[in-house]
Write a structure and sequence with these properties.
alpha+beta, Alpha-Beta Plaits, monooxygenase activity, single chain, Antibiotic biosynthesis monooxygenase, globular
Length: about 110
C-alpha cells in the first residue's frame, strides 16, 4: 500500500511598511487592528507586528497552508485594510512570502 502525504508546509508572509510623513499613528492603528482578528482566523499560526527604530513597521505572519492564507486575504477585514493602506503608506509594501522550510512545532496548530 502506498500512502501519499497531503501535509503542506506552513506559508509565511512578511515585510516592511513605511508610513507617509505624519501618518505613523494612523498606520500603526490600522495594522494593530489586524492582529487580534487575524490570529482568530482558521489556519493562523503566527501573526506579529513590530515597529522598527527607523519608523517602519514589520509584519510577520505564518499560516498553516496557502489555502488558509488565501481565505484570510479574501475576508472583508483584509479587503478593507488594503483599500485604506495606500492613504497611509510611503510607496508600496516591501513584502515577501514563501513556504517555511524549518520544522514547525506540531503542537502549534
Amino acid at each position: 500500500m502506498t500512502t501519499t502525504s497531503t501535509t503542506q508546509a506552513p506559508v509565511s508572509l512578511y515585510g516592511f511598511l513605511t508610513p507617509r510623513p505624519g501618518h505613523a499613528d494612523a498606520l500603526r492603528a490600522l495594522l494593530l487592528g489586524l492582529v487580534g482578528p487575524s490570529r482568530e482566523h482558521a489556519g493562523s499560526l503566527q501573526y506579529h507586528l513590530h515597529e522598527q527604530e527607523d519608523g517602519r513597521f514589520f509584519l510577520y505572519e505564518v499560516w498553516r497552508s496557502q489555502e488558509d492564507l488565501d481565505r484570510h486575504n479574501a475576508t472583508p477585514l483584509l479587503r478593507d485594510f488594503m483599500a485604506e493602506l495606500p492613504r497611509h503608506m510611503e510607496g508600496a509594501p516591501e513584502a515577501y512570502n514563501g513556504a517555511m522550510r524549518s520544522p514547525y512545532p506540531a503542537d502549534a496548530d
